[in-house]
Model the fold of this input.
Amino acid sequence: MYLSSLTLKDFRSYEELSLNFKPGITVFIGSNGFGKTNIIEAIGYLTTLSSHRVSTDAPLVRIGTDSAYLKGVIENLGRSTTIELEINPSRANRGRINQNSQRSAREIIGHLRSVLFAPEDLTLVKGDPSERRRFVDNLLVLRNPRYVSIISDYERVLKQRNALLKSASGMRRVDVSALSTLEVWDQQLVAIGSELIMARVQLVRTLTEPVANNYARLAEGHEVSLVYISSIWQSERNLETIDLSVVSEAFRIALDGVRKREFERGITLAGPHRDDILLSLRAHLLKGYASQGEAWSYALALKLASYDLLRSDGVEPILILDDVFAELDTKRRERLSALISMNEQILITAAVPEDLPVELDGRRVVITREGENSSTSEA
Done:
């Protein structure tokens, strides 16, 4: 798979931008703040309908305009697919596939597969559990787009359940109708949430070997492990020997156990929205232990492992590296270059050409700034 063209309108700093691509390596060169990351952010957004830099859509729309427009043409096994997306911060986004309007913008997910690594991905190692949950969920969706609906349904039920708990949290005694309604939400939360937990568990288990292999290639090899920790158990469990019915039963028991505290606090205290993936290196938890170089290598290994899984599904994704090489020492640059140099399409951003290993030299697009607008030219 490769991206053959990208069109942006009123996205970030770009009033209008059209780019054509070919397989192989394309490097965007430009000073920080000139707009090179905006280009790869747009590609990432067409992949997952989310940004690696911000959590809401409003910053993606150019100041003074109401919406942004993205269009990508994807080539895969001799077939061309055009996906279009209108980003509307004040209303639902709209998507089209080959000029056909979709019921939901989410329908475009899965047509463009890309794996993006950026400095922000250090939060996978150093950040909150929400960052690791998001990483796993995005990979689930790319491998099987049906999880878009599962995750969306879970978030909807969780929101409704939290609203009920919040409204009841100030009551001296919870009335029967509130308890009855809560039971309805409990059933849905358990049904959907248990499926999501099992999917995450299986994915984390599948990721472990490729993460370890990629880390070894980047940093000369150390013991690496990933463990899924769920809030529906009081302690770590061996998740290799359980099935969906076991997870569902544990989820119901967990909700019963926290019900009193949930009414006191007005929030749901058990479920996949409170889970985490523990990342370990040499039998130590990575967070708070790893050096900067180890953290970078581990985060890179996670993204390269997700690339490997997507490729194993039969479609080689686009690999995007945003200002990565400036943060790596010479050895890690060489090892990363050796790992990725044969990929079908690689998009790289760098502030200066000297940041790039010679092995990854390719077509160069120079990003310049004229007044308040960014523009591109080939070098």
